[in-house]
Design a protein that fits this description.
The chain contains twelve helices and no strands. The protein is an all-alpha fold.
Length: about 270
């Protein structure tokens, strides 16, 4: 048991991976609760894929990956809103148009870019290769997201439950919506380090969905989501280390396994009903 649970973390790169993974897990889990309440899971999927060309362009220009990813995450959010307002396009169609176009552009850029660096880790994450600079970047982004959610979580919850009432009591619904989208962009950039642009959407959806099976309280839901997501991250890192498998993929599998358990055995689960 000691060899399985403790010995992997005697290596410094595993310690860094654990630290970055938990930071990302908590930030993504807290936002996932809000996205689940808003019904915006598909937007999280779109933004997570749309950052790919930004990362590749950042590499070409010699900039930090986080800069390019953040710019294109915000660009994707703006484009989705613009396409929705420009015509009679439904929300899901607008999201699909924007994220598939930007993601395809990123794939084309990867094939055109001669590189000694494996840009494939952008797609699937590179948690084991996280540097001290990555730790700082992820920590700063996660702290911004966590502080913003903690500061205005009641307003965000009212936006999700009843935007008309939120407007009636004087809240700026448009500004709150924009704030959620910016937080989504920041969280996507942070989560990209752990799971890549393909799998980060799982970190933005599954924890909140799992926690929703355990409680009726939004505050408790956020606490459960952070705890379950952190547990899945630790389990995923250990399993990936011992079974020599994809770390990002293993974290998502552990997330899904915990969701199934919560779906069956939670307070709102199938067995209880």
């Amino acid at each position: 048991m000691y060899d399985f649970l403790i010995s992997p973390f005697e290596y410094e790169y595993m310690q860094i991976a654990l630290l970055v993974g938990i930071i990302v897990a908590v930030a993504c889990a807290l936002l996932s609760c809000l996205l689940n309440q808003l019904g915006w899971s598909l937007i999280g999927d779109g933004v997570s894929h749309a950052v790919l060309p930004g990362v590749v362009l950042a590499y070409i220009l010699g900039l930090p990956f986080v800069v390019g990813a953040l710019v294109f995450a915000l660009l994707a959010v703006g484009l989705i809103g613009g396409v929705r307002r420009a015509g009679t396009v439904r929300d899901d169609a607008a999201i699909g148009i924007v994220f598939t176009t930007l993601f395809s552009f990123g794939l084309v850029l990867i094939t055109w870019t001669p590189s000694s660096v494996d840009l494939g880790h952008i797609l699937f994450g590179n948690l084991l290769g996280a540097s001290n600079q990555d730790v700082i970047q992820v920590t700063v982004l996660a702290v911004i997201v966590i502080v913003a959610l903690a500061w205005r979580w009641r307003d965000f919850l009212l936006l999700a439950v009843d935007p008309s009432h939120a407007h009636a009591i004087g809240l700026n619904v448009g500004r709150l919506t924009a704030a959620v989208l910016v937080l989504l962009a920041l969280t996507t950039v942070a989560g990209m380090q752990a799971a890549g642009v393909i799998l980060v959407v799982a970190l933005l959806i599954i924890p909140g969905a799992a926690a929703a099976q355990l409680t009726w309280s939004f505050g408790h839901m956020m606490l459960w989501a952070a705890l379950l997501s952190s547990l899945a991250t630790v389990m995923g890192i250990l399993c990936a280390y011992h079974f020599n498998s994809s770390l990002g993929g293993m974290i998502v599998i552990c997330q899904s396994a915990i969701f199934v358990i919560c779906l069956l055995a939670g307070k709102r689960g199938v067995i209880r009903r």
